[in-house]
Amino acid sequence: MVGTSGSAAISEAPSPTRDSRHGCRILVISIRDAGDVGQPLTGYSALLADSGCGVEQRVIREGSSPRQVLRALWLTRDVRSFDAVIASDYTGAFAVAVMALLLRSRALLIAVGFNLSRRPFRSGHAAIDRIVDRVFARLDRIVVHSTPEADQFVALHTLDRRRFSVVPWGFDLPPVADDVAALVPRTPYVAMIGRNNRDFEAAALGLQGTGIGGVFVGCGDLQATGDTELRTFPTLPFDQCLGIMRNAIASLIILNDGNRGAGHITAVAGMLLERPHIFSDAPVIGDYLQDRVHGIAVPFGKPEALQHAIRQLADDPALRERYGRQGRETALIQMSNAAFSRKIAHIVLGELGRRRVGP
User: Fold this and answer.
1) Is the pLDDT confidence value at 51 over 80?
2) Per the confidence metrics, is the pTM higher than 0.90?
3) Which residues 6+ apart lie within 8 Å of 342 measured at CB?
């Protein structure tokens, strides 16, 4: 989804720590808004605390990759005091691993939400890249949000595939704008929302001759051809993006390629909104959307296949309803924040149970 990011400040005040019944101390490093500092434990942190672990949260605010690494290094300077450290992104995981190696900590290191939304740590110099790979190899468990992402990191940093776990994004639907009439065509339309790896030109081409309009959020100026009514926006508030999607006959996720991210949050949002999907036939999105279950998969470079899929859903309300209902059922069971938290807590406790860790 198209959203906003925080400023580059840091706050080091930890959230409350619950006393451990078993003597196991866990540090959670995450990138969040400063307002989250000092809030009660939530998500998998709360589940881990309820299981008997002492959990401490430390929050850094979003910034450039180098700044985030430096902040995470500072926040984990006492890594030897913890039995396990959980980092919520690529940069934080790198910093945690650096500190664990420098301070010879035996703490269990877990990365949650490993993805390539930023430029990877590659210098082009073999000696430097081997050092980077050695740092990432210190991670004991790496959680990614799709199977292809695991394969990408294995190839990128020569990591052990057995250390990866695939857990879909956890997402609960926030408020949705009710009145988006001024933003959308008067005729039936499809929506494609997001910046990451979206092929808006291919989507516009697929609309030609269908009689269906389009609303694209996340793209620049794009001229529609023929009789297509197309509305484009570089960005919109999140609730309006959801409102546009909720009123569309289908949500499109048409990708430039299958080697990068696929807008998984957009997929889950559309599923929760009971929208059928038309999506690129690529493994990178296969952990979320299934062909003929949640919508219709179309091959790359085949605009006629996209046109056919749009027409098929436009002409068959019962099919739209079935795909939308099945998508919502899947998302509620497997992709809610609660489901995500349970899976992460299960992974962490399983890793702790397999070995006795200490500073």
Assistant:
1) yes
2) no
3) 44, 47
